[in-house]
Amino acid sequence: MRILIAEDEWLIAATIERALLDGKFEVAGKIGSMAGALKLIDEVEFDAAILDANLAGVSAEPVAVALTLRRKPFLVISGYADRQRTGLLATAPFVGKPFTPQFLVAAIRSLLA
């Protein structure tokens, strides 16, 4: 399974990538901006996405909308409290920061089940 990562913090994106690779997933792409994520969604093949709720200071809601329109499952990661999310970001499966790699991989497996 190929997973797209939209996360603006380099170290967290690298941690996510390593967790996915260790969990036997492929990384379809890694991007840290909303514009980049929207572009990547149209350019690469992927099965699901991990989406930071806030990309470079901007709500990632437009990315959530694009994923939903393409019928791609996604989970939201964020350091914000669950109640601070709105729209599609509030209804998607949620992984709070900080997280363990094992918990993230389990969440992705659950998302794809």
Q: What is the structure about, briefly put?
A:
43% of the residues lie in helices and 25% in strands. The protein has helices at residues 10-22, 34-43, 61-69, 87-91, 101-112, and strands at residues 2-6, 26-31, 48-52, 54-55, 58-59, 74-78, 94-96.
Written account of the structure:
This protein is 43% helix and 25% strand. The protein contains five helices and seven strands. The protein has a five-stranded parallel β-sheet with strand order 2-1-3-6-7, with helices on both faces. A two-stranded antiparallel ribbon has the order 4-5. Helix 1 packs across helix 5 (101-112) and helix 2 runs parallel beside helix 3. The radius of gyration is 12 Å and the shape is globular. The mean pLDDT is 93.
What descriptive keywords fit this protein?
113 residues, alpha/beta, 5-stranded parallel β-sheet, two-stranded antiparallel ribbon, globular
